[in-house]
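Human: Note C-alpha cell order:
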Amino acid sequence: MRRLADLLDRLPDDLARQVFTHSSWTDRRADSYERLAFLGDSVLGLAVTTHLYPRLEADRYGAGRLTKIRAQAVSGRSCMEVAERLGVPERLRAAAPQGVGQNADALVRTERVLASVIEAVIGAVYLDNGYETTAEAVVEAFEPEIETALEHPVDFKSALQERLARRGDVVAYSVASEEGPPHDRVFEVVAEVAGNQVGSGRGRSKKDAEQEAARTALEAMGA
C-alpha cells in the first residue's frame, strides 16, 4: 500500500481534489471523480491481468478461469477493502463541502462509492505517473485480494446451482434495477427458484450482482 499512498500524496492539487469530489458536491459533473474512475477501472484490470498471466500455467488456467480470478481480485468488495486500507473514507469525509456531513458519512460506507474512488485514485496516478509506475503500485495495493482470489476462488453461482440440482431445482437470475450513468452502472439482481426469490445482490456488473445474489441465497439456505 505504501507506493499507492505515496503516489496519491504527490498528486497535483487539481487531480487530488477531483479524486475526492462526489458528483453531488459539484455543479459540474466533470469535476467529480467519475471520469477518473472510468480510466482507473481499465488500468486496474490491465495491471492485475498482466500480473496474473505469467503466474498461471496455460494448461490449468484457461481464459474462463482467468477471468473469474481477475473479477474476484478487482471486484467492488476488493476495491472497497483497498480503499479502507488507504484511508479513503477519512480522506473523502475531509474533502466534503460544509453542510453535507450526513451525506458524506453515508457515502463513505457505500461499496459503490469507495470502489469508484479507489479507481479514481488509480486513474489520477496513471495520468500523473504513467502506466508502469501505476501498475506496480496497484499490484502491491491489491496483493492480499489477488492472493485470496488465487488460493480461494469463489464461484457462488456454481455452488448454488450444484446444491439446487441435488433436489431437482433450477435457479434463475433477473435484473431488478439499474442505477447510475452508463460508465458507472450498478445492477441489482434477484435469484429465484420456482418463482420464489431466494437471494438478491448488487454489483457493478450483472455478473458481480448475480454472484452476490447467489451468495445471499446460499447464506439463507445455511450453506
Notes: The longest strand covers residues 171-179. The CA atoms of residues 71 and 208 lie 8 Å apart. The chain has a mean pLDDT of 91. The chain has two domains: 1-151, 156-221.
